Amino acid sequence: MSPDPPHILCVNPWIHDFAAHDFWARPLGLFYLASMLRSCGMRVSFIDCLDRFHPERKHPDRSVDGRGAYRKTPIAVPPAIPDPPGRFFRYGIDPAWFEADLRTAGKPDIVLVTSLMTYWYTGVQETVAMIRRAFPGIDVLLGGIYATLLPEHARASIGAEEVLAGAGEKVLFDRIEAYTGFSCQPGFDITDMNTYPYPALDMQTEIAYAPVLTTRGCPNQCAYCASRLLQPVRMRRDPMNVAEEIFYWHDRHGVRNFAFYDDALLSDAYDHAIPLLEALAAGRRDLSFHTPNALHVRPVTNKTADLLYRAGFRTVRLGLETASQNERLLDSKVRTGEFERAARLLLEAGFDQRQVGAYLLAGLPDQDIRSVEASIDTVRRCGIQPVLAWYTPIPGTRMWESACAASRYDLEAEPLFTNNSLLPCMPVFDRKVMDRLKQRVLRG
């Protein structure tokens, strides 16, 4: 006979960094796992160390699109960083609040902790250490991006019972049975996203915006990107399934802002994105959509541009990365002429130039800063906003070897060195170069 359903505590850890902001960043994978566990009758609690709306925070930062500033507290710079570019912070709730939240949640049977950027692992360390003090002897399982990209480092550094690399839903139910004896036959197919329960966004203090995932994986193989490592199998939801979820969060919970987390939202546009956009446009709800992950340029046509506008997209980001022909080996998504056409079509569809931006990578290995300046000028000439994205070296990507060779740090020895605030692949940290590029972006 199987024991009673266990109590599973899910935790989103602190961020330790020189800079961090909530640009539509939520632990969507953890929310999916929480909803799957609930669907099996387990008691699930959630504590968000990044909770911008924690009851103890007197004046949370709210904006009309859902983004906002995390609470931050100065902490010591990790000793491994010899030349910090500024002050270092813990982003998120006060440790005393976390301690109280742990007491309120009650003793769990298992704690699930997620992880994001590899260079944020010290925030995960602090989070797990506090969990250990609150619940001695309770098993902690670590998953997420850091756990997937650097599992051996995570096993040596965090102190979790297990590090779950890859998609958690493939192994989590087996691990829960191994630790608690509770057996559950999930009521969904792990190979079919259409069968998944909606993510447990309702466990948050406040739903400022809802992250939406319509596909997993990416058809492209950009040299700097870890998408193929994190999601090697391409999966896609039915467009109507996605639209129904969006309407659910609006109708039941009043959510108005939605951020698409897809790596390739417009891929296979006529079979996927266009039916979804048509359903959203026909839904006649006052919703706002955002694309913090860049849209691929080639699928932007008159039809897709018009539908994006009519559906209610308010923040559109395009993936240009660089307009320099000398750097086109980075990816195969776009040529400069195609980018110029996409920008024109979006503006003609009705978008304001402030709503449309293009990501430009800066700080790449052996990159000539003049090429970044030229790319900024190219974007400006197209009438939209350049958005600088400082390069973060990611282990396992095709660019990792050249990043290691170009860096003044030993990137393989210490994940903290991959922090883009350090400009790790430039010969020296040069604040003047950063300021010069920022001013060029602002001049338009």
Write the layout of secondary structure elements.
Layout: E1 7-12, E2 15-17, H1 28-39, E3 43-48, E4 72-75, E5 88-91, H2 95-105, E6 110-113, H3 121-134, E7 139-142, H4 145-149, H5 151-157, E8 162-163, H6 172-180, E9 210-212, E10 215-216, H7 227-230, E11 235-236, H8 239-253, E12 257-260, H9 273-282, E13 288-290, H10 302-311, E14 313-321, H11 336-349, E15 356-362, H12 369-381, E16 385-390, H13 400-406, H14 431-442
Parallel strand pairs: 1-3, 1-6, 6-7, 7-8, 9-12, 12-13, 13-14, 14-15, 15-16
Antiparallel strand pairs: 2-5, 4-5, 10-11
Order of helices and strands: EEHEEEHEHEHHEHEEHEHEHEHEHEHEHH
Instruction: Determine and state the CATH class of the largest domain.
Output: Alpha Beta
Distance between the termini: 69 Å
Major β-sheet annotation:
6 strands, parallel
Share in β-strands: 15-25%
Residue windows where pLDDT falls under 50 for at least 5 positions: 325-332
Task: Describe this structure as you would to a colleague.
- The structure is a single chain.
- Helix 10 crosses helix 11 and helix 12 (369-381) runs parallel beside helix 14 (431-442).
- It contains 14 helices and 16 strands.
- The chain is an alpha/beta fold and 444 residues long.
- Strand 14, helix 11 and strand 15 (356-362) form a beta-alpha-beta unit.
- The longest helix has 15 residues, at 239-253.
- The protein is 32% helix and 16% strand.
- The protein has two domains: 7-180, Cobalamin-binding domain (Rossmann fold, 3-Layer(aba) Sandwich), CATH 3.40.50; 209-442, Alpha-Beta Barrel (TIM Barrel).
- The strands form four sheets. Strands 9-12-13-14-15-16 form a six-stranded parallel sheet. Strands 3-1-6-7-8 form a five-stranded parallel sheet, with helices on both faces.
